[in-house]
User: Fold this.
Amino acid sequence: MPGSMVESLLASIREAGFDPEDVTHILATHVHLDHAGATGTLVRQMPGAHVYVHRKGAPHLLDTTKVVASASRIYGDRMKLLWGAIESTPQERLHIIEGGDILNVAGRRLEVHYTPGHAVHHVIFFDVHSGELFVGDVAGVRLPGIDYVRPPTPPPDLDLEAWSESMNKVKSLRPDVLYIGHFGAVKNNIPEHFERLHEKLYAWGDFVLGAMRDGKDEGEIIAMLIEHTRPELLQVARDPHALERYEIATNYPMTVQGYMRYWRKKHPERLSPQFPHR
Ligand SMILES: [Zn+2]
Assistant:
């Protein structure tokens, strides 16, 4: 969650009948700003809370200097409005978790599973007893009331093979409910949800790869991908604001930058004109 949302989170905790001072655990699925940007601010408001994060994400919470610098390059003047404060988390409040760990939180027993692909520091939290799975961004972006799942593929660690394996891991848990980062609960046809996400993740990746092989630059590929994919969303959503709302959750420029970096870093051979295009 970003720092700009701290006040409304605290209000929701109170509304649910709890005191923020009684919060004991803050679980980070991963450290992207829209999920964990407010962590340092929250621990200051929740004196009893400890933060649980994967080993590869912990350094970015411990010292936010680098994250702030790179986000400032992207967001410029809108930094404060979008993200609020991005404060560091004191070391004594940070706890490293890995796949295979078990956390006991507020009467729940949560299994931690390591799920890279969207981010190299991504984990999910599964309550075996209730079948509820806190799945972060591994299950993509699907907004309430709209039957459409979109792959959030930001740089720098997008990895399609790893993500695909993570989706298989999630399916093998056979969850009854997915709590998606962007956002809400998915209760029906969960295997189908992942089939669609998998298909789209690779289809968009192939589209970007094809455009790169044709010598298009980033700006051109963004425009092409929008043109190519907008109709599929509008077909299911019928709401003219749906596109805008999906764009807030995961935007096209980042989507394309993530794929471009992935192809260059992981499969440079496929960018060569000699490589047969399938
Ligand atoms: Zn993310």
